[in-house]
Amino acid sequence: MTDPVPVITIDGPSGSGKGTVTQLVARRLGWRVLDSGALYRLVGLATSKSGVGFDNHNKISDIANKLNVEFNGEKILLDGEDVTDVIRTEAAGNDASRVAAMPAVRATLLDWQRQYARAPGLVADGRDMGTTVFPAAKVKIFLTASAQERAKRRHKQLKEKGLPANLAALTAEIEERDARDRGRAASPLVPAPDAIEIDSTGMDIDRVVEIVLRQAHAAYATPL
Ligand code: DC
């Protein structure tokens, strides 16, 4: 079975550079982007705002089902409120990782994510894009980098946005979140058997983009 629409999946742990690579590849090809982490971050934020406990799986699944989100250009609105920056904080990332471990939440987000696959093509960024959401994609990338390097990148990103950041705390949080994302039963963070693994530690991001574009060219005859 092949996807009716060409899809490139870019999976990997937090801070591996997935988001940047996804944006750059999509821009070069003129394709759409799915930032699946943003959807989990929105469910995490909506849960934390609602006051529902993170152990209440039924209520959280209900929240995911009824999520009132609007994507307005670069802006993301939750219940009409601009949450573009709030969902990028480390606290929102940790909440996202907790709700992402719940099978009912993952099932709710599955259809929503698949609807992003529209012509001329999709670059999908996440943890299980190649294994679960788009298993028939012909280009699957699994991007990694050392925890220290990823913490340094996240630190720089947060500082650039004027958000608070502490390198030691970030490293610890990244390691904790990785362990939870890799260890969960529902769609754990693992490379698809047919994924190409790229360790981007010390690698220029343009080099990673070049590798992905070469794979896309071979699979979908896209321009280099
Ligand atoms: O990519 P990100 O840091 O925005 O993702 C936030 C959290 O959501 C991350 O801890 C793992 C989870 N996630 C997931 O489980 N599956 C995805 N496809 C994307 C994100």
Description of the molecule:
The chain is built from 9 helices and 8 strands. It is of the alpha/beta class and 224 residues long. The chain has a single domain (7-216), classed as P-loop containing nucleotide triphosphate hydrolases (Rossmann fold, 3-Layer(aba) Sandwich). The protein has a 5-stranded parallel β-sheet. Strands 3-4-5 form a 3-stranded antiparallel β-sheet, with no helix packed on it. α7 crosses α8 (167-183). It starts with 6 loop residues before the first strand and ends with a helix. The model has no long low-confidence stretch (mean pLDDT 93). Bound molecules: 2'-deoxycytidine-5'-monophosphate. 2'-deoxycytidine-5'-monophosphate binds at residues 14, 36-37, 40-41, 93, 96-97, 100, 126-128, 177, 181.
